[in-house]
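Justification of resources, computational component.

The compute hours requested in this renewal are based largely on the per-chain cost of generating structure records like the one below. Each record pairs the submitted sequence with a full structure-token output. That output is archived, and it is also reused by downstream analysis tasks.
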Amino acid sequence: MKNNGKEKIDEVQSLSEELREKEIQIELQRTELFEKQSELEESRDRYADLYDFAPNGYLTLDTQGLIKEINFTGAQMLGVDKRNIVDLPFINFLVKDDFQKFLNTLRVAKQQNIPKTEEFRVSNKRIGTIYVHFVLTPLRDYKYKEVNFRISLTDLTERKKIEDRLKESEERFRTMAEYSPVMIWVSDMDYNIVYANKTKLEFLKRPFNEVKDHKWIDTIHPGDRERFLAILKRAYEAGESLSTELRVNCKENGDRDVLISAAPRKLPGGKMIGFTGTEVDITERLKVKRDLENSLREKEILLKEIHHRIKNNLQIISSLLNLQLNYLENEEIIEMLKSSQSRIRSMAMIHEKLYKTKELSNINFAEYTREFTTYLFNTYRSKIGNLRLNLDLSDIKLDINLSISLGLILNELITNALKHAFPNNEAGKVNISLKEEGEQVQLIISDNGKGLPDNFDIKNTNSLGLELVDSLVEQHKGSLEIKTNGHTEFRITLQKSSKPKTPAKAKYNA
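The structure output for this chain reads:
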């Protein structure tokens, strides 16, 4: 009896221990289940947040097109509260003009059982019409024989605005290009024309199919074609702009002269894909230019002939004076006629220079001074002794009026020095300096001869030559300064331009 009681006690204790172990296992399983449930709920919450706040809108429609489910982003696109949208017809949120297109999309997706993509306009209750991209996927429930639809919405409003602006800008550019008074064309890397504006086609009197591709080269005059292709090739290879004149053939107007300018077309990375070119009809301009050049040449020939005749007439006058000298005995009169001959010679040489030069408006006065002073020294060679001529001349170009005046001044002052500064054939020197200072010309003529009288006044002199010098200086609004300090110096400054300068009185410094 005792042994049986003990066995029962041991059995009860063993069962109790097994029960406690089972309870512990159940508790562990419960804890693990709770953790799994928490993880599942957390995962579901994360999915719900991800679904609700995804960048795209998501909604589900039943077979009647009623909204059964929608995320927060989708509700925002429709402009309504998510809680108040369930069981509302989705079609109510579309722009009326898109109703039929949406119903057709549903029908095709249902019949073909494939996703369909389309763009629609949505009437957002808060911000107005927006553009959305649909991905509509049919969900077929074979158990209940129903077809629901899952829709993904992407907001295209900003992209549409950008596209519309680009389209508008492109349309403006195309209109501007088409009706521009300048001919415009675009080529590819194979020298093919891929675009020509209306002005270009009307100029050529050809439709685009006669100009596109490599055919446009045929519109260039055969005599200019090879040269232009060489220019075009060099520009393509160097990726540089080009500009040239050539002749092109118009069906109705024949050959015309055009100025072509072209710039490279490049991708953002720098790869060249062709040229954008412009052309301007310069036929009339070149004709006017040629006419003007011909007219100018005719006038130049006529003007040269006039200068030539003036020179010849002056030489005839000088020859007549020379003949008259043979009949005169009065030395004073003879000297006056010789002075007149010298003045005539100074003017004749000016016209001779103009006749021989290419520039009919200007004379190289330094060159003239060398030749004329040589002439004067040769003329008075018998009356002068060992005289030296020192020239310091800058290359200055002067118009005919100023040149004639300076030529006469040179004649009077050098002749005066040769005749009176060195009596008894004394040795000496004559210096001539010609300089340009801005818009002024400075002529300095000096000698180391006997000098001027102590009471010399150019305003009160019996010398016709010096009176002429003073008068010419005043005529050109210039200044005349006379110095006598061991030598005689005439310093003359004249204005080159037509702008007058306040004349200065002649000075005499002893």
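Residues 2-52 form the longest helix (51 residues). The CA atoms of residues 458 and 470 lie 7 Å apart.
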